[in-house]
Amino acid sequence: MLIDRHGRKINYLRLAVTDRCNLRCFYCMPEEGIDWLSRQELMSYEEMLQISSVLVGMGVEKIRITGGEPFVRKDFMPFLTDLSKLNGLQQLTLTTNGVLTAPFVPELKKIGVSSVNLSLDTLDRQRFLDITRRDELPSVLGTLEALLKYDIEVKINAVVMEGRNTEDILPLVELTRDLPVSVRFIEEMPFNGGSHQASLSWDHVQILEAIKYKHAAIQKLPDPLYSTSYNYQIPGYKGTVGIIAAYTRSFCGTCNRIRLTPQGDLKTCLYGNSVLNVKDLMRADTTLNGLETALREAVSKKEANGWEAEKNVVGLPILNASMATIGG
């Protein structure tokens, strides 16, 4: 098993398959995009499958595929199908912006993808265009409809941004009245590639107060083990509401996650430096025992929380990076 120095079992991998994205959300990257990785810099699907197999053998039970946007990478579905067949993998999930996803939903169901996180910051078409710089809201809503049709668990992720979409909080909450979805509001993080100055005034406390102003009867639900969100439900509503303290980082103490970036950097915390490059190790023909030893040593040094990880950053401030390059 992978155990960190705080005695936490690490059983969840977030694997970013690409840094590229077909949206240009202002809170993630500049309008012109970022300096995309070359094909040689990326891990190949074979390398991703190999390291995933090693990690599953070391106790990883859940893999979430992220990006960038996973569906912009060529031949993504055959890779996902191969990944779903790993012996010992108990849960395969993914995060997507939903622009290209709808046609693949039947196949996602067939291979056993159990849950999809759908990025959706607003239900207003103009605000969607303003935030993402692309007029793709109908495509995203089509993906939501398809996921519900095929009975795949849906978590809608909405980043709350002052002056941009705070008026969308209540309309998004209303989705949970008739739909069995979890709408999760996320504190804005400053991982935007230096594109703007993030406003952090809308923290998890203020987000909840805004919801309570309309729904005073909202009830706190028990939070599952390792949950990153504080979870709630309005009486009589089918779905639930979650609030993720992504910048406040109040959930870090129970962290069971590691991340792999598209270029193979292992990150034990979103807010910290890379601690190991597994792509380089594999391309150097490192033995299985050598790879496992390197992974155990890296994970054993995982910091207690995001604040400690940020304090220990060496080199350029990690907060200047784009979320697309570190795995959303």
TrEMBL record:
<dbReference type="GO" id="GO:0005525">
    <property type="term" value="F:GTP binding"/>
</dbReference>
<dbReference type="InterPro" id="IPR006638">
    <property type="entry name" value="Elp3/MiaA/NifB-like_rSAM"/>
</dbReference>
<dbReference type="InterPro" id="IPR010505">
    <property type="entry name" value="MoaA_twitch"/>
</dbReference>
<keyword id="KW-0949">S-adenosyl-L-methionine</keyword>
<keyword id="KW-0004">4Fe-4S</keyword>
<dbReference type="GO" id="GO:0006777">
    <property type="term" value="P:Mo-molybdopterin cofactor biosynthetic process"/>
</dbReference>
<keyword id="KW-0342">GTP-binding</keyword>
<dbReference type="InterPro" id="IPR000385">
    <property type="entry name" value="MoaA_NifB_PqqE_Fe-S-bd_CS"/>
</dbReference>
<keyword id="KW-0501">Molybdenum cofactor biosynthesis</keyword>
<keyword id="KW-0456">Lyase</keyword>
<dbReference type="GO" id="GO:0061799">
    <property type="term" value="F:cyclic pyranopterin monophosphate synthase activity"/>
</dbReference>
<dbReference type="Pfam" id="PF04055">
    <property type="entry name" value="Radical_SAM"/>
</dbReference>
<dbReference type="InterPro" id="IPR013785">
    <property type="entry name" value="Aldolase_TIM"/>
</dbReference>
<dbReference type="GO" id="GO:0046872">
    <property type="term" value="F:metal ion binding"/>
</dbReference>
<dbReference type="GO" id="GO:0061798">
    <property type="term" value="F:GTP 3',8'-cyclase activity"/>
</dbReference>
<protein>
    <recommendedName>
        <fullName>GTP 3',8-cyclase</fullName>
        <ecNumber>4.1.99.22</ecNumber>
    </recommendedName>
</protein>
<keyword id="KW-0479">Metal-binding</keyword>
<dbReference type="InterPro" id="IPR040064">
    <property type="entry name" value="MoaA-like"/>
</dbReference>
<dbReference type="InterPro" id="IPR050105">
    <property type="entry name" value="MoCo_biosynth_MoaA/MoaC"/>
</dbReference>
<dbReference type="InterPro" id="IPR058240">
    <property type="entry name" value="rSAM_sf"/>
</dbReference>
<keyword id="KW-0411">Iron-sulfur</keyword>
<feature type="domain" description="Radical SAM core">
    <location>
        <begin position="5"/>
        <end position="231"/>
    </location>
</feature>
<dbReference type="GO" id="GO:0051539">
    <property type="term" value="F:4 iron, 4 sulfur cluster binding"/>
</dbReference>
<keyword id="KW-0408">Iron</keyword>
<dbReference type="Pfam" id="PF06463">
    <property type="entry name" value="Mob_synth_C"/>
</dbReference>
<dbReference type="InterPro" id="IPR013483">
    <property type="entry name" value="MoaA"/>
</dbReference>
<dbReference type="InterPro" id="IPR007197">
    <property type="entry name" value="rSAM"/>
</dbReference>
<keyword id="KW-0547">Nucleotide-binding</keyword>
